[in-house]
Amino acid sequence: MGVKQFSEFYDELQLELGERTDIADIDGTDFRKIWINTAYITLATQNKMWGVRKNHTFPELETFQTINTTDGDSTVDIPTDCMVLRHVWDSTNDTKLIRIPFSTYISYSGRETAASEGQPTQYVRNGDEIYLYPRPDDAYTLYMYYRKRPAKMVDDDDVTLIGAEWDEPILRLAVSLGLRKLQQYDEAKKEFENFMDLVRGVVGIYDQESYDNEDYRAVGPYNDFRY
User: Which strands form 141-148's sheet, in the order they lie side by side?
Assistant: First the structure.
């Protein structure tokens, strides 16, 4: 999790914007708090980072939740903070459910009848629910693995859900957003460039997670890179 608290983000952003007193409130919420949260949520929900060619995900936002099915009910609610549903695993039967297109699901005849009930083996997401097939004939424990959507910071001591290495990029992006809204476009562009430089550096750290998938061998005086 991040180190900077929401109040620290706020104080630093206020300093970066020159202690301006002409930034109005919206229903009691300071614009600066909006810019900080916009920067945080925008960064945390990106699939491909600015200036980075490959996709990126935040390990801290990958999570799961257990949900029990109900006998005769073909739908199960998805966790409210779910942004991307990764997998559904049936813990009761130790099996992974197969994701199918919605067109395939609705092509199944008699899917809502008692005669078609059984152990669910397939699912499809539809809005905030998943539809199971066959319709459950009992209570099964499902593990939903998903990428969560982080909530906005509200209290002064709130911190981000992503690593502390992202604190400075979040601040730089918030500064850029603020300067843009204040029509200081040249300064906003410079801050965004600083933000992208930081992002490229931090994303590179995550590449080290894949090192255990590579075959690294020490190079000594009697061998070369071919061995």
Answer: 62-68, 141-148, 82-90, 95-96
